[in-house]
Amino acid sequence: METRLKVDGMHCDNCAARVEKALQELDGVSAEVAFSDGMARVTHPDTVSVADLQDAVKSAGYTAEPG
What we know:
The protein has one domain (2-66): Alpha-Beta Plaits. It has a 4-stranded antiparallel sheet. The chain is an alpha+beta fold. It is built from 2 helices and 4 strands. The protein is globular. It has helices at 13-24, 50-59; strands at residues 2-8, 30-34, 39-43, 63-66.
């Protein structure tokens, strides 16, 4: 599956890298996070829900909504 998330709270490319790393710690997840547009493009298995993705972003100190 592919999910796009609007990530709030990022202030720089390092923030985006932190979010990307948090997402990719989930099994089977690949993510590309762009600070420039505040979006994350996430490829994940069906066993990883959008809520799981949001929780990973939250653990990194940011918020995310499907977008």
